[in-house]
Amino acid sequence: MVDPEPIRFLDAEGRYAPSASAADYAAELDGVSIEDFQQWYRDMVETRAFDTEATHLQRQGQLALWVPSVGQEGCQVGLARATEPQDHVFPAYREHTVAKVRGVDFVELLKLFRGFTHGGWDVTDPANGNFHLYTLVLAAQTQHAGGYALGQLLDAKARAASGTLDAGEAGIATGEATMVFYGDGTSSQGDANESMIFAASYQTPAVFVVQNNGWAISVPVERQSRTPLYRRALGFGIRSVQIDGNDPLAAYAVGRHFMRLAREGAGPGYIEALTYRIGAHTTSDDPTRYREADELAAWRERDPIARMETYLRERGIDDAFFAEVAETADRAAKRVRDEILQLPPPDADSMFAHVYSEEHPRIEEQRVWLERYESSFEADQENQV
Ligand SMILES: Cc1ncc(C[n+]2csc(CCOP(=O)(O)OP(=O)(O)O)c2C)c(N)n1
Ligand SMILES: [Mg+2]
C-alpha cells in the first residue's frame, strides 16, 4: 500500500500550495473569510503566550506541573474551528488551543495544575463549549467520547421513535458529533482500540483525532507502530486520513468534512495530524536526553504560527495586525497570571470530598491525619513562646 501525501494546503513556509491529496477537501475552505483566518492566527498566538506564561509559573513554584503545547497549535485551531457549538469535545491534556476556541477561560486550566480543583471547569455551563475535562489517564477519554457519541446516536434514534439500535445500523442523522483528541503513544492503549471497534460497529458520530507529535514522552512513534497510525483505523473500517498537522487549513478542511459526515449519519472518522511537540513533555521532562537537536530544528522551521503569518501576509495583511495581536496576547497572558495568583486556595478539607460517594474509613483516616498535622504547627508556636 502506498500512502498518499499528507493532506496540506500550505507549503512548509506557508504559501498556498495544496497537495493532490487535498483536492477532495478544498471546498470546505470556501466559506472561510480573511477575518476568520486572522482569528485563527490570534487564537494560536494567544495560546502560545499563555502557554509560555504557564511554564514560567510552574518554574516559579506556582503550578505543580505544566504541559506545554507549543508547536501543536496549528492542528488544534483548525480542528476546533471545524466543530459546531452543539458538538462535544473530549481532550487529553495538551489541547489548550482547543479549550480556548471552545470558550474555556485559561484560568480554569491553571486551577487544575495549581491543585485548586480535582477536575476543572463546569462542563454543563454552555460558556465552556461542551469541552470536557482534561484526562491524564491515557485513552480514558476515548471511552468517554465513545459513550457520548453512542448517546448522541441513541437520542437521535429516540427522536425518530424507531425502536432499538442494531450494530451496523447507519444513516441516522444526529445533527451533532463528538471529537476526541489523543496522542500517538495513547493510540497503543487497549481503550483507544476498543473505542474504534465500538464506533465502527454502531456507526457512532465520533471523530478520532490523533496528534502524532513523534513522541510518547521518550518513546518514538516508530516503536509504537509498524505502520502509519492512520492505517490502523482503516483496519477497523473507519474512514481515515493523514494530514499535515502544522497546517491549520488542512486541519479545518478535513475536520469539517469528517464532522459533517458524522452528524449526517455516515459514521466515524479518524484524523492523524503529523505535528511536533517543540517543548518538553511536561515541566518534569528534559527532552534533550532523548531527542536530537537536528530533529527539533527541522520542525521549528515548520512552525504553524509562522506558516499562518506567511499565508496572511500573502493575502495582504500587514505589520500593524501582527503587532497588535502580539501585544494583545501578552496582555491576556498577564491577566491570566494575575487572576490565578489572586485566587484564594480552596479549603484543604475539600480534597477529601467526592473521592468516594459515601464516607470511607481510609479517607477519614487521612483527613484526621491532616488535621493533626496542621494543628502541630500551632502547638510548635505555643512551645516556642
Ligand atoms: C494509562 C496511563 N499510562 C501511562 C501514563 C503515563 N504517561 C503520561 S503521558 C504519557 C505519554 C503519552 O504520549 P502520547 O499519547 O503520544 O501523547 P503526548 O504526551 O505526546 O501528547 C505516558 C506514558 C498515563 N498517564 N496513563
Ligand atoms: Mg505523542
Polypeptide structure, described:
- With 385 residues, this protein is of the alpha/beta class.
- The chain folds into two domains: 20-346, Thiamin diphosphate (ThDP)-binding fold, Pyr/PP domains (Rossmann fold, 3-Layer(aba) Sandwich), CATH 3.40.50.970; 353-384.
- It has 13 helices and seven strands.
- It has helices at residues 34-59, 73-81, 96-102, 106-113, 140-159, 190-202, 221-224, 229-235, 248-263, 293-300, 304-314, 319-342, 361-384, and strands spanning 88-90, 178-183, 206-212, 215-216, 219-220, 239-244, 269-274.
- The strands form two sheets. The chain has a five-stranded parallel beta sheet with strand order 1-2-3-7-6, sandwiched between helices.
- α6 links the parallel β2 and β3.
- α1 crosses α3 (96-102) and α2 (73-81) packs parallel to α3 (96-102).
- The longest helix is centred in the N-terminal third of the chain and has 26 residues, at 34-59.
- The relative contact order is 0.16.
- The model has no long low-confidence stretch (mean pLDDT 95).
- The structure holds thiamine diphosphate and magnesium ion (MG).
- The site of thiamine diphosphate has 15 residues, from β2 and β4.
